[in-house]
Specification:
This is Fibronectin type III-like domain-containing protein. This protein is of the alpha+beta class. It has two domains: about 110 residues, Glycoside hydrolase family 3 C-terminal domain (Rossmann fold, 3-Layer(aba) Sandwich); about 130 residues, Sandwich (Immunoglobulin-like). It is about 15% helix and about 30% strand. It has six helices and 16 strands. The strands form five sheets. The protein has a four-stranded antiparallel β-sheet with strand order 10-9-14-15. The protein has a three-stranded parallel β-sheet with strand order 1-5-6, covered by helices on one side. Helix 3 links the parallel strand 5 and strand 6.
Length: about 300
C-alpha cells in the first residue's frame, strides 16, 4: 500500500493551517520530508511582488517564510523525524530548523531532475559533497545595514560572529581525517611556497572530500581579513584510502594590502590552515582543520 501523503500549499498571500488535520495526515508516516524555501517568482530584479518577506523582487528578511516555520513546528510536534529540503537561490536563515530538525538539505534551485537527485541523497544512493559558497547567517541582525558598503563584518573573511552555517560547510555520509601537514619549501618572499597534507577516508563509504586551504596573517594590524580561502581540491576516496594533497601558494596569495593600499609580501608569520572547512576555533581544536606557521624571510616585495 502506498502510504505517502502529500501536503501542498500554493503561493497564496495568506495560508491558514489546521494543525489537527495536518497531524492526522502524517500519523502513520515513518518520516516526513518537507520541501520548502523560496522561489525565483519571489526574488529577482524589479518584480511585481508584495508578500511578507519580499518586496519588488528584494527580500526584506533572510528568514524562511514564517508560514513554513509554523508548519514545520506542527510537523515536528508529531514526534516523527522531519527532513527539510531547501529550495533557494540565496542564503536563508533557519535557526529554529537547525536546532530542532535532524537534517537540512540545501538543494538550491534544481532543474527537471531535482526530485530524483534529492531522493538519491535522502535514500543514501548518492553520497553528497557540496560546500556552501556563501555564509548562512542566523538572522539579518548579524549583517550591517544594506547601504553600508565598507565591508566591515561582511563575508566569511571579516565576520566575527557565529554563523548558522559557515562558508565552505558541507556534510557527507562518510568521515575524513587530516594528518601530516607539512611546509615543503623554504618560505622566502617572492617565491612560491609548497605545502602538503594527508587525507584519509575513515568511514565505511566512498565519498568526495573538499580539501580547503585558508591563509591568515598572524599579528597583522589594520583592516586585515580573519582568514581567506586560497585553494581547494576535491578528492574521491574509497573507504580506508589515503591521499597526499599538495598546494602551491604564490607570492600574491601570501601578500596583503599595506596602509597605502599596495599589495605587498613581506617577512613575517603567515598561518596556513588545511581541512574540511574554515579554520574556526572548534574545528581547529577538534583536529578537523590543521594549522602550520610559515615564517617568511626576505625583502619586502610589491605585487603587481
Amino acid at each position: 500500500m502506498d502510504r505517502r501523503t502529500i501536503l501542498k500549499f500554493t503561493g497564496a498571500k495568506v495560508v491558514t493551517m489546521n494543525a489537527a488535520n495536518i497531524l492526522a495526515k502524517v500519523k502513520d508516516a515513518d518520516a516526513i520530508v518537507f520541501i520548502g524555501g523560496i522561489s525565483p517568482k519571489l526574488e529577482g530584479e524589479e518584480m511585481n511582488v508584495k508578500v511578507p518577506g519580499f518586496s519588488g523582487g528584494d527580500r526584506t528578511t533572510i528568514g524562511l517564510p514564517q508560514v513554513q516555520t509554523d508548519l514545520l513546528k506542527v510537523l515536528h510536534s508529531s514526534g516523527k523525524p522531519v527532513v527539510l529540503a531547501l529550495m533557494t537561490g540565496s542564503a536563508l536563515a533557519t535557526p529554529w530548523e537547525a536546532e530542532h530538525l535532524p537534517a537540512i538539505l540545501n538543494s538550491w534551485y534544481g532543474g527537471q531532475a531535482a526530485g530524483t537527485a534529492l531522493a538519491d541523497v535522502l535514500f543514501g544512493d548518492y553520497n553528497p559533497a557540496g560546500r556552501l559558497p556563501v555564509t548562512f547567517y542566523k538572522s539579518e541582525t548579524q549583517l550591517p545595514a544594506f547601504d553600508d558598503y565598507s565591508m566591515v563584518g561582511r563575508t566569511y573573511r571579516y565576520f566575527t560572529g557565529e554563523p548558522l552555517f559557515p562558508f565552505g560547510h558541507g556534510l557527507s555520509y562518510t568521515t575524513f581525517k587530516y594528518s601530516n601537514l607539512k611546509v615543503l619549501s623554504k618560505p622566502v618572499t617572492g617565491q612560491p611556497v609548497r605545502v602538503s597534507v594527508d587525507v584519509q577516508n575513515t568511514g565505511a563509504r566512498a565519498g568526495d572530500e573538499v580539501v580547503q586551504l585558508y591563509v591568515r596573517h598572524a599579528g597583522a594590524t589594520g583592516r586585515v581579513a580573519r582568514h581567506a580561502l586560497e585553494g581547494f581540491r576535491r578528492l574521491n576516496l574509497a573507504p580506508g584510502a589515503r591521499q597526499t594533497v599538495q598546494f602551491t601558494l604564490t607570492p600574491r596569495q601570501l601578500s596583503r594590502l599595506d596602509a597605502q593600499a599596495k599589495r605587498v609580501e613581506q617577512a613575517g608569520t603567515v598561518q596556513v590552515f588545511i581541512g574540511g572547512g574554515q579554520p574556526l576555533a572548534p574545528a581547529v581544536a577538534a583536529g578537523r582543520v590543521l594549522r602550520a606557521s610559515v615564517a617568511l624571510t626576505g625583502a619586502r616585495v610589491v605585487i603587481d
